[in-house]
Amino acid sequence: VLELSDPRQLYDVCEAERRRGRRVGLVPTMGYLHEGHLSLVRRAHELADYVVLTIFVNPTQFGPGEDLDRYPNDPEGDLAKCLAEGVDCVFSPPPEAVYPDGYQTYVQVEELTRPLCGARRPGHFRGVATVVTKLFNMVGPCVAVFGEKDYQQLQVIRRMAEDLNMPVEVAGSPIVREPDGLAMSSRNAYLSESHRGQATCLRRGLIAVRDRAAEKGGISPEEAVKLCRSVIEAQPDARIDYVEVRDARSLAEIQRVAGDGGAVMALAVFFDKTRLIDNMVL
Ligand code: AMP
């Protein structure tokens, strides 16, 4: 596996691959890799010939008081996992290679970034859209793979790529979960044993709504939110950031959850300072 930290070298390597007629695939991450990330790598291998995994804890997508300064990292473990998965190139630039002195250009996706995590984390998706644009320009990928775990992020990136005529295919990949249903996340490492046990409530809340909607042939957003909140609030230390049901594509508010895949239920829950997210298309 080729290890790079210089954006220009990365571009040259990827350009050489493209000239040989090979499709370049990109998997952007913030590192501390787990099975969720590795599932994206496997998807990238299906869609491309040369797979680049990037590891960059992007400062512009963190708000003040968030976990930028304590985000977990394990460069050696990450590299071993990339080697085992046949990643062709691992790119981990220093922050100043991405945001040099005088940096002042940002990408803003409008409507899609207003609700859900966008409302709770002002500036977050501006940072995400900006860094993903920069990675697209550094790599020139034919395809880039993102997890459905970050559902709103995936919709934002799809919209951005289309709106800005970026010549890249944006592929989504399903949520990978622990055996008890908790969505895998680098941030799960922050959880105490007790909170780790309680954290299954996110998934259980979503399943309760799915089952109720199937039983009754549909459900109102209000009832869906109430039911999901009641499952989560049964845990002593769960602090709900938001629980919402929205249109699966536009993320606009909706009148009814019909159970036809047109709605997404998305939520964020704190245990102490650790913020977990999950979602389900209904
Ligand atoms: P992160 O390192 O958390 O920024 O995530 C990098 C990429 O991996 C994003 O596209 C995430 O959506 C994706 N990802 C993270 N966790 C999971 C998971 N449990 N299942 C599927 N994809 C995931």
What's the arrangement of secondary structure elements?
Layout: E1 2-4, H1 7-19, E2 24-29, H2 35-47, E3 50-55, H3 75-84, E4 89-91, H4 95-98, H5 116-120, H6 124-139, E5 143-147, H7 151-163, E6 169-173, H8 193-198, H9 201-216, H10 221-233, E7 238-247, E8 263-271, E9 274-281
Parallel strand pairs: 1-4, 2-3, 2-5, 3-4, 5-6
Antiparallel strand pairs: 7-8, 8-9
Helix pairs in contact: 6-7, 9-10
The structure holds adenosine monophosphate (AMP).
Adenosine monophosphate (AMP) binds next to helix 2 and strand 5.
Report the average pLDDT across residues. 98
* Cα Rg: 19 Å
* Strand percent estimate: 15-25%
- Biggest sheet overview: 6 strands, parallel
**Order of helical and strand elements:** EHEHEHEHHHEHEHHHEEE
Low-pLDDT regions = none
